[in-house]
Sequence to fold (154 residues):
Amino acid sequence: MSEKKVSVLEGFKVFLMRGNVIDLAVAVVIGAAFTQIVNSVVKGVINPVVGAFGTKELDSYSSCLKGSCKTVNGEVDGIQILWGSVLSATLTFVITAAVVYFLMVLPMSKYLARRAQRDAAKEGAKEVVELTELEVLKEIRDAIVAQRGSGHDQ
Fold:
């Protein structure tokens, strides 16, 4: 029974030490910190800009679909649509996506494209070298055949 516990624990240790699990953990931590930065930008910059046209809190923007939408005894009279919170979440998403694309995806794709070009250039140079070596070997073969042919004539 103790052998099973050891093997399960060792299996768990192997699982934790795999590179992709550690990479995923780092990505989650960085993502959480990044989310706080984006939320701060939305609250500190975007909301005041929108607030210049209305209120600073996007969450307070709403429309009443039915009834007066006044709160009476803790209950809202009517059907209220809180489109401000949707707008705030959408702005947060768009800003996050833009930052991820322009600071991470775009530079990485440019780097990979340059790397692919370098690799292709190296492969092209290697083929040229191989062709040149092949031509030299053909010349050597032709010279040997010519020497043998002239040696038989004498």
Notes: Residues 83-153 form the longest helix (71 residues). The first strand starts at residue 63 and ends at 72. Helices lie at 2-17, 19-51, 83-153. The chain has a mean pLDDT of 79.
